[in-house]
Design brief:
Length: 480
């Protein structure tokens, strides 16, 4: 019979949705100011985003209801935040991403890189990291990981199979890709003429160690794909949600900023950071698993996205229409609206809009100014120390919540902190935006981590801690 706790757990989402707004009511009732009303909305959305009691996109729509109800902003002022220039930029970037996926451009890039770099484990890992990071600059981190993980594991399986076949035929180990599994029964191999020959004494590596190497390399490949997807998204403004949240909130909070955060300026700042992070991640994964062996940006994005609906996917010509015999038809375009409608993550558009609405609400209600005034004692602390503490806090928070939700929640507060202690807002907001994308430690931290966790036979300890010297090779590849 179900216990009381089991019933409560089964209905936890309903309890949070109905009970939390009531429990937080003393704040706007006892402090009847616009600042308190805005704080009530922020706290409520933060709890809903953390617990996922409601879908993230649905939670992001709460300002449309609460801000007009509490007199913070008019409905027309809130709603316009949900499809501003930054959201249009994101929408245009998604059109390009869907076109890349729909026409399998990512597979062509990946295979071309593999033909160039070969199959040495270290270079193979680097090649997949470069391709994944490049794709993640233009499409979502989740999509780039979902595209590359099947390719990576198919390559691993093919290389392992080729190594075994070569060993059986030639009676020797493969020095280039030593991940093969061979039977150690009597420690013998066979030539094509069926004669049995003992293995050379110097090559008597145990089967367990060989399986161990293969297992660790598979783990490294899984982690390199999801990590490089998160890192690659840092390089461009459309690469990951927190970057767009930063641009939208800077434009909202500081309308006279002369468009300081745009596609070109962000790329000039973030691309070198991405290269450094990618190199350091590659080195770290080698140590752990292989050893030392125009106009506005939104206008441009929509323009490029519309081109995808115009350009033919094949050489222009006329072919028979299979659906209408006797009729001719031209080649299909690179993208069509049916594909866009099926693959467009509309929920992220609403999630971004919710963050922009929060930022505007903080400004209009006066909560930003109030919070900044309360934090003036922090002026005595070193700015670099403040930034380090805030980055660690954001990085820890994003391990448990959506990257976009984390950035949407923290950036308005960080802007207030910076103004309160007389720092340039970007000095605090930019590094914390980068930190919001660096969710590496938990499978639930970001969708790329979850995808790799399900593919690569990983455990949580493999992501949070350096691997032990002897990792069990018998764990099944599918995460339980």
């Amino acid at each position: 019979m179900a216990t009381c706790w089991q019933v409560l757990w089964a209905y936890r989402s309903y309890l949070i949705v109905f009970a939390l707004p009531i429990l937080l009511l003393p704040l706007p009732i006892l402090v009847a100011t616009k600042e308190a009303y805005c704080a009530y909305t922020i706290i409520l959305m933060a709890f809903f985003w953390c617990t996922e009691a409601l879908p993230l996109a649905v939670t992001a729509l709460l300002p449309i209801i609460l801000f007009p109800m509490m007199g913070i902003m008019k409905s027309s002022e809130v709603c316009i935040q949900y499809f501003n220039d930054t959201n249009v930029l994101f929408f245009g970037g998604l059109l390009v991403a869907i076109a890349v996926e729909h026409r399998n451009l990512h597979k062509r890039i990946a295979l071309r890189v593999l033909l160039i770099i070969g199959v040495r484990p270290a270079l193979l890992m680097l090649g997949f990291m470069l391709v994944t990071a490049f794709l993640s600059m233009w499409i979502s981190n989740t999509a780039s990981t979902a595209m590359m993980m099947p390719i990576a594991h198919a390559v691993l399986q093919q290389l392992s199979k080729s190594s075994r076949d070569r060993d059986i035929e030639e009676g020797r180990n493969n020095p280039t890709f030593g991940l093969q599994e061979i039977s150690d029964k009597n420690k013998v191999t066979k030539h094509e003429n069926r004669q049995i020959h003992p293995l050379p004494p110097g090559s008597l590596e145990s089967k367990t160690n060989r399986i161990q190497k293969k297992y660790k390399f598979s783990q490294g490949m899984s982690l390199c794909v999801c990590y490089s997807a998160s890192i690659g998204g840092l390089a461009t403004l459309t690469g990951t949600g927190p970057n767009l949240v930063l641009q939208g909130q800077v434009n909202s909070l500081f309308p006279n900023n002369v468009n300081v955060v745009n596609f070109a300026s962000w790329f000039g700042f973030a691309f070198p950071v991405t290269v450094i992070f990618l190199l350091l991640t590659w080195i770290w994964l080698q140590i752990l698993f292989l050893g030392f062996n125009l106009v506005s940006d939104g206008t441009v994005a929509i323009f490029v996205g519309m081109i995808m609906f115009i350009m033919p996917s094949k050489i222009p010509g006329l072919t028979q229409d299979p659906e209408r015999p006797g009729k001719l038809k031209g080649p299909p375009t690179l993208l069509n609206w049916k594909t866009v409608n099926e693959k467009m993550p509309w929920n992220i558009v609403f999630l971004l809009g919710g963050g922009f609405a929060l930022a505007k609400g903080c400004e209009v209600s006066g909560l930003s100014q109030w919070l900044g005034n309360k934090l003036t004692p922090l002026q005595s602390v070193s700015p670099s120390t403040i930034v380090l503490i805030l980055c660690i806090m954001v990085a820890a928070f994003t391990e448990c919540t959506s990257n976009v939700a984390t950035a949407s929640l923290f950036l308005p507060i960080l802007a207030s902190i910076a103004q309160g202690i007389c720092l340039h807002p970007l000095y605090v907001m930019v590094p914390c935006t980068l930190s919001a994308s660096l969710a590496f430690m938990l499978p639930v931290a970001t969708p790329p981590n979850a995808i790799s966790f399900s593919f690569g036979g990983l455990r949580v300890s493999d992501m949070t801690l350096p691997p032990a010297r002897k990792t069990s090779p018998t764990r099944p590849g599918k995460a339980g």
